[in-house]
Amino acid sequence: MAKSQAVAARSRSNWIIHLVLIAASVVMIVPFIWMILTSFKTVTEATQIPVKIFPANPDWSSYAKAFEKSDFGHYYLNTIFAAFMKTLFPVIFSSMAAYAFARIKFPGRTLLFFIIISVMMVPNPVFYTPQYLLMSNWGLVNTVTALWICSLVSPFATFLLRQFFIGISQELEEAAILDGCNPFQTFRYIMLPLVKSALVAIVIIQLLWSWNELQWPLIINSSPDKLTLSSGLSTLVSMFSTNYPILMAGAIMAVIPMIVLFFLFQKRFIEGVAFSAHKG
Amino acid sequence: MAIRKKALMSAMSLTVVSAMALTGCGNNNDNSASGNSASPASSSNSSDTKAADSSKKDVTLTYTIWDQLQQPAMEAIAKEFTAENPNIKVKVEVIPWGDYWTKMSAAAPAGTLPDVFWMHSGQFVKYASGNFLEPITDKVESGEIDMNNYAAGTGSIYVLDGQNYAVPKDFDTIGLAYNKELFDQAGIPYPDDTWDYAKLAEVAKQLSQPDKGIYGFAAKMDTQGGYWNDMLANGGYIVSEDGTKSGYDDPASIEALKARYQMILDGASPTHQQMTDTDSTEMFKSGKLAMIFEGDWRTADIDGSDIIHGKWNWAPLPKGTAKRGNIINGLGNTMSASGKHKDEAWQFLKFLGSKRAAEITAEMGAAIPAYKDTQSAWVKSKPELNLQVFIDQTVDATAYPAGSKAYPVWFPKESEIMAQAWGGNISIEEGAKQVAAMMNQAIADNK
Amino acid sequence: MNSRSRYVWAYVMIAPTLLGTVLFWSWPAVYSIYLSFLKSENFGLINHWVGFANYEKLFHDREFWQNLRNTLYYTVLFVPLTLVFSTFFAVLLNSKIRGLSAYRVIFFLPQVTMPAAAAMVWVVLFARDYGFINYLLGTHVAWISDSRFAMFALVIVGVWGAIGLNMLLILAGLQGIPRSLYEAAELDGAVGFRKFRYITLPLLTPTLFFTTVVLMIGATQIFDSIYLLIGKTNVALPSVRSLVYAYYQNSFVYYDQNYGAAIVDILLVINLILTGIQFAFQKKWVNYD
C-alpha cells in the first residue's frame, strides 16, 4: 500500500506543479492576448471604464489605419533586408576568423584576438554617437545601408565560433592537410560542416537581435521609408499618442513574423538563444 | 584535386564579396544621401553646377512635414505642381512632431536634410545660423516672390541678418473647443467672447462629473496650446522682448500657471496622470471633456471623430485680467542648403508660396494659409464650425517666443520640468522657477 | 604546406572581421572617450577641447546621480527577481512532468517579442482607469505615471521578458546534476528543500553566477522600455530615467553629444567593473567540478 500512496502523493504534487505552471503561462501570454483584443476594439472600448475585455464587434479598421498612416511596407522590407545583411556577413566573416584564431598559430594571434573580443565589454550605446558621425561623414545618415553596415562583422559570433572550433579533434584536420588542402579548404569542407549547429544558433540570434533592435535605427534614420519595424512603431506612438487600437494593430504587425518563425522552428530558436547565452 | 578548384573559386568569391562590402562604405549608391561632404558650403557649390546642366532631367524631391492631418493637402499641392512641371516629382514625408526636430538635428550636420521641409519659428535661428538652410534673398530681391503677399506679419518671421530663408506657409492661433451636448445637458449657454478665465473655471466645475469620467476642462500641461496663453492673458510673458530673460518666474506668469493647475485640484479637469494615459484631445473627441484649448490645426482631426462630429464648436479664448492672450505662430517652407536639386526645389518652394497652393490648403481645411485674402476660403471649409474666431484673434495675439538659438535647447527640457509640477511632485511655483533658471542658462549658453 | 603560407591564409581569413571590428567598433569606442573631452557647436560641426569640463558638470548634476541611482536600483530589483523566478520555474520543469515543451515555448515567447511592441501593450495593461491589471487586482494605481510605482512597472516588464531564457539556462544547469547525488542524499534522509539547499544550489552556482553577470550587464543598459513605456512628459520619468535614456536625450534631443558621451563613458566604466568582478570572483564563488 505504501507504494500506491507514494504514487498518489506524486500525482498530487504533479497537479500542483501543473497548476502553478499554467497560472504562470497565463501571465506570460496575457500581454499578447490583450494586444490582439485591443487592436479589434474602438478607441472608446479600449479606454472604457470599467474595463471591457471583448470588443462588441471586432473592428478591423485599426489595421487599415496603421497601414495607411505609416509606411509598413517599407518597415517590413527594411527590417528583413537589414536582418539578412546582419546575419549573412557576420556568419561568413566570423566563421573564417574564428577558424583561423582557433586552429592556426600565427604571429600576433593573441593580440589580434584580444582586439576583437575587447569590444564585447563595451556597452552598445557607447558606439552610437561615433558610429553616427562615421555614417554622417560617409553620407549614409538616413539610408537603408546605415541600418546594417556597422554590423557587417560580429566580435561576439567570432568569439563563440572560436570556442567551437577549439573543441574539434585534430585528426580530421590533419588528414585534410595531408591531402594537400590549404587552410581555407580545410575550413570550408572539413571544419565548417562540423559546427553547423553553432552556425544555426548564430543565425537565429543575429536575426532576433536585428529584428528587435530599437535605438540605432531610431538615431540614424528619419524618413518613413528608411525606418525599421521597431523605429516605425515608435513613430506610430508619436503620431497616435494614445489611440491604443491603432498602436496595438501596429505592434501585432511588427511581432507576428518573428513569432511565426519561432513557432515553426521553436526547438532551434530555444536551443540557439540558450546556447549563445551560455557560451557568451 | 577537384576539391581544390572549387575551394579556390569560393575563396575568390568570398574575397570579392568582402572587398565589395568594404569598398561599399565609401561608394554610396543610395540616391537619398547627398554625397560625402558634411559641410553645406562645399556641397552647395557642386550641386549648383550639377543642377544647372540637369534641370530638365527627372527629379524626385522630398518634402517633409510633421502633421499627418495635412498630408492629403500637401500631396494635392505636390500633384498640381507636378502637373505643371512634369519632370519634378514630389514625395511628401511625415515625421511626427514629437520626433521631427530630433531627426532634423541628426540630418542637418550629415547633409541629409530633405530638399524642402516645414520650418518652425522657434527652430529657425539655429538652422539658419548654422548655414543649413538655403537663403532665398536674391529671389525676393529679384521679385520672383513678393513677401508683401503674406498676411499677419508672416513674411518677416524667417529673416535673419537681412537674409530671407523661408516662404510663409500658414499661421495658427488657439481657440476654445467646446462640446455642445454637455453644455445643453447642463443648461449652460455656450462660451462666447464675453467669457473671462473666472467664468471658464466656474463653468468647468459645473460641467464636471468625475464619477462618470466627464470633466469640464482639460487643464493640460501644454505650452502653445495651453498655459502660454494664460500667462500672456494674465500680464505675464514667456521670454522677454529682447530675448534675454525667461518670463516663467514673473509673478503674473506664476499666478496664471497656478490658476490652471487649480482646476485639476478642483476636480474640474482630469489629472496630469489621466492625461498621460489618455491624450486630452482624444478625451474631447470621445465626448468626455466639455472644453479644451486647441490649435486651429486640430479642426479636421477632432471633427473626424464620429462621436463628437456635429456636436462641437469653437469659441475665442477667454479674456484675462490684462488682455486676451493668444499665441500666433507662422510656419514656413524652407529648402536645404545641401540639397542636390536646388533649382527644382526652388521651383517647388515658389509654388508652395503661390496663391494656388494657399487655396488648396484652405479648401481642404488643412491650415490657415498665410497668403493674403485666402483665409476666408479656409473659414468656409467647414461652415458649421465658427472658424472665424481664429482669424479674429490674430489682432490680440502675441508672436511665438522664437528668434533665438536657445529655444531648441530649452523647449524640450521645459516639458520635463513642468511635468514634475503638473504631476504634483513639486509645487507650481518651484517648477516655474526651475524652468526660468534652466531657460536663462540656455539663453546664456547659446548667445 | 609551409607555415609561412598558413600565416598568410590566417591573416586573409581574419582580415574582414579584424578590419570591420576596428573600423566600426574599436575606433568608435575610443572616439567616444575623445568626444567627452570636447564641447561642440552647430550640431557637432565645430568642436573645442574642454578637458574634464563635461565630467565636472556631470558630477555636479543632481540629475546624473539620480539617473545612476535609478539604473542601479533597477538592476538590483530586476536581477534577483529574474533569478528567483527563473530558478523556481526551472526546478518545477525539472520534475519530469508532461508538457515540458509547451511550457518552454510559452515562457520563451516574450524573448522573441520586440521590446518596443511589448512596452506598448504594457502601457495599456498598466493604465490607471481602464488598465487590465488594476481591473484584476481591484486597485486604482497609476502604475506608470506615479513616481512610487513606475520603477516596479519597469521591473515587471523586464522580468516578464527575461524569465524564459534564464529559466532554460538554469534548467540546462539542473539537468547536468547527476541523479546519483540525489539518490545518495535520499539514502541519508534528505528531502525536499534540504536537497535543493545542499545539492542543487551548490552545483548550480556556475550557471547562476554566469546568468547574474549577463543579466546585470543587460540591466544597466535599459532604454527601450523607458522610452516607450514611460515617455517624455510622464511625471514619473525622473524616478526611472536610466543612464542610457539620459545619454539619448542629451545627445540627440538637447544637442549635446559631448555630455551624452560623458554619460555613456561612465556606463562603460560600470560595465568594465562588472566584467572585472566576473573574472575575479568566478573562481572563488563558483563550484566548478
UniProtKB/TrEMBL annotation, chain A:
Gene3D superfamilies: MetI-like (1.10.3720.10). It comes from the Bacteria. Keywords: Cell membrane, Membrane, Transmembrane, Transmembrane helix, Transport. GO terms for biological process: transmembrane transport. GO terms for cellular component: plasma membrane. It is a multi-pass membrane protein. The chain crosses the membrane at residues 15-37, 75-99, 111-128, 140-161, 189-209, 244-265. Pfam families: BPD_transp_1. It is found in: Cell membrane. Residues 76-265 form the ABC transmembrane type-1 domain. InterPro entries: MetI-like (IPR000515), MetI-like_sf (IPR035906). Belongs to the binding-protein-dependent transport system permease family. This is Carbohydrate ABC transporter permease.
TrEMBL record, chain C:
It is found in: Cell membrane. Keywords: Cell membrane, Membrane, Transmembrane, Transmembrane helix, Transport. The chain crosses the membrane at residues 7-27, 72-93, 105-127, 147-172, 203-230, 259-281. The keyword Mitochondrion does not apply. It comes from Cohnella fermenti. One of its GO terms (cellular component) is plasma membrane. This is Sugar ABC transporter permease. Residues 68-278 form the ABC transmembrane type-1 domain. InterPro entries: ABC_transporter_permease (IPR051393), MetI-like (IPR000515), MetI-like_sf (IPR035906). One of its GO terms (biological process) is transmembrane transport. Belongs to the binding-protein-dependent transport system permease family. The keyword Mitochondrion does not apply. It is a multi-pass membrane protein. PROSITE patterns: ABC_TM1.
